[in-house]
Write the structure tokens for this entry.
Amino acid sequence: MPDASSSSLLASTRKSGAVGLLLIVGALLAVSILIAKAAPSVGWHPLSLLQWSMLGSAVLMYARVAFTRPPLVLSARFLGFSLVSGVLFALPNALGFAAAQHIGVGFVTLSMAFPLVITYALAVSLGLEKINAIKCAGVVSGVIGAVLLSLSKNFLEGDLNFWIIASLCAPVLLSIGNIFRSRYWPHGVPPAHLSLSMMAFGFLTLVCLTGILGMPIAPTVWSLNAGGLLLAQTLVFTLLYDLYFRLQHLAGPVYLSQIGSVSAVIGALLAYAFFAEIPSTLGYLAILFVGLGVYAVSRPTNATR
């Protein structure tokens, strides 16, 4: 049996690996939203770009999984899990990608910090986490940040009102997805298989959504820029969601939800660098309250489950 020192080393290694994955996944999430913001400039509708990027990513993931062990097994439990995961993945991404065109990359990426506090609240209500006063204060801080974030983008303007609400619905759906995957993760199925199936069912979900809404399925004109953007988003998705499932498998849903805070910070920097989106005073206050909420919810405690 391993001694105390080897167990401590293993725990430290796992923690370091989780932190590294967290930073990479959060950064890739911000980049994917930035690409969505650029989609219309090269003729893509953001949802069409999202749809075909998911398909391309699923194909690349399958090419890797097909030559590794264990083999992919399409059981009823696996397919059911994949269907729900795909829907809970596609819908919030569709909301975020579409909203980025109307309210900015900075706002959308900052709203992605909220899944941490929402996931924690859901985990407590379902008995997956113990209630903690400091973490509860973090949830309240996150809610205050959400209100300030809404006000910072002229919430009372009718056209923007819908997209602000849509953007803030996305983290709720992401949080539900985080909890669902942890609670119903099929026993013995590797993360790579689940990320592949989630992308495949996410693609099918968007096919239905874009068909119902009558959206174009291709760019207005195929060009080198349009094809390059599709390739870039496909590659980002392939790496992002492979690591995303590895992080959840390693550290759990609440820790995974911290990717939003990493994405928010990096996204704000990218939005300023590429789109000159400068946060307002309320925006800076929102960042402060969200940051306090993230810290309070994610800080380690001595409580045991």
Summary: The chain has a mean pLDDT of 81. The longest helix spans residues 4-38. Residues 146 and 270 are 21 Å apart (CA to CA). The chain is about 80% helix and 0% strand.
